[in-house]
Fold each of these.
Amino acid sequence: MIYSSFEFVALLGFVGILLQYTSQAARKWVLLLFSAVFVCWSGLVTTIVLCLVISLIWAVLSLARRYSERSQLITACGIGLLVGNLFMWKYWGWVASLASLSLDGWETSFFISHQLPIGISFYTLQGIAYLIDNTRGETKPISFTEFVLFQSLFAQLIAGPIVRHNELIPQVHALPRAQERDVLKGSELFILGLFKKMVLADRVAQVIDPIFAAPEQFDPVTLWMAILLYSVQIWGDFSGYMDMGRGAALICGIYLPKNFYAPYLAHSPSEFWRRWHITLGRWLRDYVYFPMGGSRGSAWRTIINLMATMLLCGFWHGAAWNFVIWGAYHGLLLTLHRVARLFVRLPKPMAIGVTFIFVVFGWLIFRVENLETLGSILTSFLDAGAYRTLFSAPIDIRCIAALALALAIQAGETAFPLLGKMWLELRLEARATVAGLLLFAAIYYRGTAAPFIYFAF
């Protein structure tokens, strides 16, 4: 069940009304049942794996509290099992093929023949963070029901955000009725996300998918246009999903953290990662980069920590060399920026432009199906004669419009304190009209429905 489906919207409306007329204790069970239906709709394998992961984490927590003197060892074993489970589902087939291992065994064929359980990369990281925080003494005892909701809440289960215990569990524990302003804001946020996904991302996909399917048939100018448009697609797709999830949660009275904040207006690679997939970047910082030493050691040690963290980030995204290279590329960008800022300071508009160009080039590495395709595209870029149509080719209005709209929305995010205040001061009728127009555009101008990109991760 995806957020843009009629089934989800209808069920969300029913649950939102039900939550308004039930007691606090009953509201937890309503949300739990809704989340269970949401998970079961995703398939039997996804449901079973999630239940096993939740049971494993709860068992580790119980054992760690019972045998406190061995809590670190118990937690380490639990984390090892979680990582091993993720590895077998997501990476074993790829690693085995690289090592030329036999793929005929039952233990291999089982994991390869079944589709990757939806959301496993996200709720595994969330569970690992909870176990580590528990070992650090940062968590409080909670009921099993509250923990299950923390790990499986419908609004952040499949593709994040990756929430911390102190962001969600207190809300799950209290769970007051959603206020009118929350329901209104949640509905507006959901419609905005629907617009990003169906009008921007899905329509852009129709233009660029044929180009990436046969890049050798297109000139470098067209390929650059496709890369620019893919940067719009992946932002609209992923941030649109986040907006819909956060909006749905608000309708149910729960606030989830932002996962995007105008990433294409970042003026440095490090700021980009504070604006793009914010909760993943925060997880990598707190549970990988800082424990390795962060930037507290020598310059070389800092570079090693950065590269290792970003390699893990790339590998987390998928079992393919292009994701590993993409992670290494961003690690290199972060390293070069740390060095370059010691010698030169660009004006902010120029810094934003330079950062955007490097990020867009990184999306090429992220998007290609294999290294052969990447090599073919890069080779075509080096053919100077192929750019002879650069100024004579007709301007693709779709490319300009999509990019301009994406940047305009992100510019609005940076001015949110002012625009948000102005928006709240508008009459309800005016806000409803704007939301209605966005909804109309999302339905009438939608592209061919495409799966959410991050569902694959």
Amino acid sequence: MLRVVIADDERRVCELIQALGEWQKLGLEVVGIAENGPDALELVGSLHPDILITDIRMPGCDGLTVIKKAREHAPWLEVIIISGYAQFDYAQTAISYGVGEYLLKPINKEALNHTLEKMAKHCRARMQDETDVESLRLSHDDDIRLLRAKLIADLAVKNAQLISKEQLEREYHFVPTSDAFQIFIFKTDYNMQSYSETSVQIVQNKIMDVMQPIVSKICSEWIMDGEHATLVGVMNFDYASHASLRTLLREGLNKLVVEKNLFGDVEFSLAISPIGMDATALVSLYQNASDMISERLMEGTGRLLEGDASKSGAVDMDFQARYTQAAVHAIELMNEQEAKTCLRVFDEVLKVPGIRGWELMELVRGAGLIFISRLGVDAIDQVRKTFEEDCERCSSARELIDCLGKLQTEQLAQMIAKRKDRDAQPIRNAKLYIRKNFARPITLEDVSDSIGFSVNYFSTLFKKETGEGFAKYLTRVRMDEARGLLRDTRLPISEICNSVGYGDIKHFTKTFKIETGLTPGEYRKLYG
């Protein structure tokens, strides 16, 4: 509802306006009435109306002064002036103050409501314009936030291009004013089965609440953004403050580690890069922090990880080739136990002197891709993506290797089930063929031809999948049909004999008795 204040030194005029106005219909509400100028100004200041209806002449402070002062504090205020013919020159002055509507006494209902309707439209149009402007501003702010966050995404790209100070300002709206740059990565490891996306976001918000005051206290320019339980910070600050910043970052980590039981089964780690003295160092700073955060796999969580992450050489050794050989063997055998032996390679990887967490991560992720590629899984890109995300949530070397074992077990089991289902499909087709054709003298050759298998292979596969031979299955199908016809119809037994694929009634009777213990006639008497 739009808010209206009425000001007139004649009480009856105020009451008349109240009585004549179609307030509800027009979406208006009278929130205050004043009988002099000072009171009118006080109501405008306290009630913040959208529309002011005021007499042009009032004691204490005339209408013109009221309009002028009210507009100084509330420039959006729509004003309707009330005047008599004798005060028309005052009305002209009011118009110069931006008042576009006036009513002549005596007040006419139609004129009043027509004017109120126009004022209401002006108010709503102004509000819509303000909303549109605010939306544009928010959209602009969102665009800037996205551009700033894009800096982190671009730094994370492998072989990222060097970024100059000018690019930081122009492309990312990141304006460094100090001499030192540094990057931190805050990692949360958690059990996916125990945490929903909402729970993870709650933890991330808590980390932001702790880290933002720390960073903003020291840094002249900074960005924090992240996803998948990883928070990345790009910081610009005076080099002289680097020791204080490191201390505060460590304190932030310690605070969250102490409180981690509040969040459940989570582990926190923080990696910080060396300090760079130029924007072009950001790419290498990010790579260092990214490598160092993986050191939690080797050194444990709850630590501040910093320093040199130079490789041990494990990635260049023959571990991947040995894993591939073992994986191919397990896949050929379709044996889950054999697949577990593939993981023994990583027991040796862990013995490499100086093995780095990022090297172990690279080897495990590479092994997972080899396994699913050799296995030929469906939707390989999605399986790979899920596996890599699971790897990122691991907080120790053993947990990471177990993650690979889980991938092997699950994907191999699915492939075994798929192959079993694939082998069973021809048998289902064969059964369908038999049920459609049992009334005629079909043979093993007829059925095997219908599914494109050799007689010997089909015979072996059929018995393996069904637990009985072809002849026995065909007889059972025919006897089931015969029992139904004997029970539910009055067809002659000779006709039933022919309809289930037997040309000789003696053979039919003998077979039926072997299967049921009764002759066809006895069966009908008992169950028909």
